[in-house]
Amino acid sequence: MGARPAIETWSSRISHGRRRALAGEIPGARRESLTVTLRLYNTLSRSVEEFRPVRPGKVGLYTCGPTVYDRVHIGNLRTFVWEDVMCRVFRALSFETTQIMNLTDIDDKTIRGAVAAELPLREFTEKHIATFFEDLGTLGVVPAALYPRATDHIPEMVALVKKLAARGHTYETDGSVWFRIATFPAYGRLSKIDLSAVQRGARVADDEYEKEDVRDFAVWKAAKEGEPESAAWTTELGRGRPGWHLECSAMSMKYLGETFDIHTGAVDNIFPHHENEIAQSEGATGKTFVNFWLHAEHLLVDGEKMSKSKGNFYTLPDLLEKGFSPCAIRYLLVSVPYRMKLNFTLDGLRGATSAVERLESLDLRLREREGRKKKEEEKISLKVNTPEATGGGFAERVSAARRAAFDALEDDLNTAGALGALFSFVRATNVDLEAGHLSALDATAARGLLSEIGGDVLGILPRTAVVELTGVSKGVSHAVGTLTSATAAAPDPSSPSKKSSSDSPDVGEAWILERIEARKQARKARDFVAADAIRDELLGVGIVLEDTPQGVRWKRKP
């Protein structure tokens, strides 16, 4: 396939400080051991295996991106957010990570869409690419190193077909070129299909088909009458277009090499797409194509397959219009490990909203604790004596929570286990705050953990945590794509109703309720920055909000 090109895109153009964050230099990053034992479930072997990269300390990762014929739905987004968490984990573990995500802008679906819209193919797909990036940005997904479009790589695809032909894997019929699966004895080892009933020479022209229809597949499709001129190229193979499966083989090997570490997608990519990718790639090179294949399970809605006809089909804007925040949506998407089906419900989103607000509330309380005057430290007992404490002081509890979270993530990216470790820490820390057992330094350490696990790794903490410890970067959550909200300006001291709690503890209840209602309306309008600013404004005058399933509760700080 030739030398791989240098990738000078999203990740190579970022600032030095952001590169350090993406490489794993984040608050409280694990430095206890130079040895990391990361275990991943490999679909190829149907077992959990220890991950060993092709190049020590570096990860090459190809993730199947969207077919850009429509806006992606929440089932698609579940896979993309999981892949984002996976890359964050690699970087937190100090792997230099190169993620390539393709954009399928030429296939049966995009052609049908362009014909129906009476638009050139490029113009039709461009708008869907734009909404895809908009949705990724809304959910705080860290950009991949590169998003190659299939239509920009036709020469590489033609070269791959020629290489397959030279090795005896293809034949031509009516201007199209087909891969003869009988020439690749290992065909079926990923999907575990039964090849005994396959009729020799039978062909399937569609990009997508079922296991029962396994047969020779198209690597190059001759131009058809009725398809737009913009969907065909004149090449050495004749006028036509690549088969869908060929696209990913050509692009992944161009940017990651003929053998690379990890290829991901959803479970419906296993067959025929990934099975055919293996046949094409290994048929052309004679080398192992990919060492680890990872696949995300389906997302259900209210226990059923998502369908427009059932009224349970959601895109990201649909959920935002219902008043749910990007953080809550992302939380629900990562709350279940990727190899388990996720039952997506609106009640689940409400629970996710409450969970995110618990993190936000604790972060606000810890920030307030950090701000106490130094002289107050002498009055505070630093002994941790809550039942949930791990013993040995607060620093040990922070370390234990971090270890527990990373132990879960290193066990096949168990996000549920990491969230369990995080919220056990949240519960114990809230108890200590109420009892007055935390020093300002303890609060800083706790915020660092929230920022690292909740922000940098899982991407669910809705604000940038800024900490002031040695070797800790400021605002790293924002650098690695955490969903953030603006910090509210300090309340106007000239306003009699908005003085600090120490100056005026008797802020009127009517004004408090007015601000709570304003926050509610801001959230309904999806203006989460304004909603967070109102929460901070109330905190500045001594009013603490607590969001519960029954509504917002408020209390005055003692």
- Bulk shape: elongated
Helix content: 40-55%
Instruction: Give the N-terminus to C-terminus distance in angstroms.
Output: 68 Å
Number of DSSP E strands: 17
Unreliable spans: 8-34, 380-392, 463-482, 484-505
Tally of separate helices = 16
Please report which band the strand proportion falls in: under 5%, 5-15%, 15-25%, 25-35%, 35-45% or over 45%. Answer: 5-15%
Average of per-residue pLDDT values: 83
Look at the helices and sheets and give the structural class: alpha/beta
Taking Cα atoms only, what radius of gyration do you get, to the nearest Å? 26 Å
Main sheet overview: 6 strands, mixed
List keywords for this structure.
16 helices, 558 residues, 14% strand, alpha/beta, six-stranded mixed sheet, four-stranded parallel sheet
Write up what this structure looks like.
The chain is α/β, with parallel strands linked by helices and about 550 residues long. The chain contains 16 helices and 17 strands. The strands form five sheets. Strands 5, 6, 7, 8, 9 and 10 form a six-stranded mixed sheet that branches. Strands 4-3-11-12 form a four-stranded parallel sheet, sandwiched between helices. Strands 14-13-15 form a three-stranded mixed sheet. A hairpin with a 2-residue loop joins strand 5 and strand 6. The longest helix is centred in the middle third of the chain and has 25 residues. The protein is elongated and about 80 Å long. The protein starts with 15 loop residues before the first helix and ends with a strand.
